[in-house]
Amino acid sequence: MHKNTGKSKRWIIIGIITLFSILFLTIRGESKKISDEIIALKIKKKMIQDKKIHLLSKKNRLISQIRIERIAKDSLGMKKQPIINKTAFLQSH
């Protein structure tokens, strides 16, 4: 009976070591997977930020006063009128 107790303790120790090994490998695998997802999301965030900067630059070019004046002049035949000082204009009338 003494031999059976020693064998059962040995199997319990082997079982505990196996269980902890499986848990360690599982946790390590999940950690690696989450780390890879974080890296992928950082790359995606950087791409979105770059796209945002590009679109803001494009928007600023499209709404620039010089571009609008050129389109008005070329397409509609409009000319830029000089700005009159309001104070001088009101005093003359």
Can you give a write-up of this model?
By secondary structure, the chain is mostly helical. It has one domain. 86% of the residues lie in helices and 0% in strands. The chain has helices spanning 2-62, 65-76, 86-92.
Keywords:
single chain; 93 residues; mainly alpha; rod-shaped
Which structural class is indicated by helix and strand composition?
mainly alpha
- Helix content bin: over 70%
Provide the succession of SSEs: HHH
Poorly predicted residue ranges: none
- The overall average pLDDT, rounded, is 85
Number of strands: 0
The major beta sheet can be summarized as: none
Secondary structure tally, helices: 3
Overall shape: rod-shaped
Distance between the termini: 122 Å
Number of domains: 1
Summary of the model, kept short:
The protein contains three helices and no strands.
SSE arrangement:
Layout: H1 2-62, H2 65-76, H3 86-92
